[in-house]
UniProtKB/TrEMBL annotation:
UniProt-annotated stretches for the region Disordered: 1-29
Pfam families in the record: Abhydrolase_6 (PF12697)
Keywords: Hydrolase
Lineage: Bacteria, Pseudomonadati, Pseudomonadota, Alphaproteobacteria, Parvularculales
Residue spans of biased composition, Basic and acidic residues class: 1-24
Record flagged with keyword Nucleus: no
Matching InterPro entries: AB_hydrolase_1 (IPR000073), AB_hydrolase_fold (IPR029058), AB_hydrolase_sf (IPR050266)
Name of the protein in question: Alpha/beta hydrolase
Species, as recorded: Hyphococcus luteus
AB hydrolase-1 domain span: 64-315
Amino acid sequence: MSEKKADKKPKDLIRPLEHLKGEKPPAPGWFEKAVAAPSEEGAVTVGGARIRFSAWGEPDRRGLLFVHGGRAHRNWWRPFAPFFAANRRVAALDLSGMGDSDWRDKYSLDLYVDEVFAVIEEAGLASRGRPIVVGHSFGGWVTLAAVEREGEKLGGAVVVDSPLGVPDPHEGYNVVKPDKPGEKAADKRKAHFYDSMEEMIARFRLLPNQPAENLYLVDYIAREGLRRAKPEEGGEGWTWKFDPGDRAGFEIHFERDLLRAARCPLAFIYGEKSMFGQGDGIAHLEEQARGRSPFVVIPDAYHHLMMDQPLAFVSALRTLLSAWPVRFGV
């Protein structure tokens, strides 16, 4: 019996839905109500790519935009967005190359920032003042890039469990360096195809690997992240929505004084057990944030903290937004 548990745990850690074989796990009422909440579906063209978004709440309210992580999609936020729509205009977008948005020949952080501000405008998030942007993981990097470039247009930015590390005293934050500068997406565009939707869901994994107890959330984002293969892709069956070539030539760099010279208020939320909430990088971040930015830790949560502690995440973000940033009048 103990051997069986020991054998099963590593598999569950890597592929938490494998044992369900494509069947939907039971879900609590709050989740079913949230994902069933009606949303407006929209799109805006940015640099030749159609960028999809969903929106909740009335247009004449303060704006809140959610930005998903790498190779994720806007529906990671669908179970949570309705909790903020009673008194805000809320939107979540699919960054290009992910979700239902168009793919590009080449991706850049600057283009992602263009997409963020285009959706803010198209979804009506700035009609009642400067909106707040919340970004998880890769989306947190996009959020910080928006702050660095045009932070004066934002009422605030919340970075959720994004790894930053310690900046080089001369070069700043070299977060992502390209393997081959100038490489195009098509050079790395090799999709994996699966015979059935059930097989894909069973193979779904979170990166980095972590325990996953709320399987209804993991199952939901897995289902929303797959699609039928197109004939021109050279395969049959099912594949993931994201562009497998989206990291070709991709680079992320921030200036050394990113946090001290932020052009709008910043706040940070990290998981207590997240690998990105440990070590010198987080110690540096906390030191930089001290006295300047709220720093919230979600107990018993890993990197994908809204999957681990969904209602604690909602409560923490609600509380943060209700009291911050007071002196900026948001």
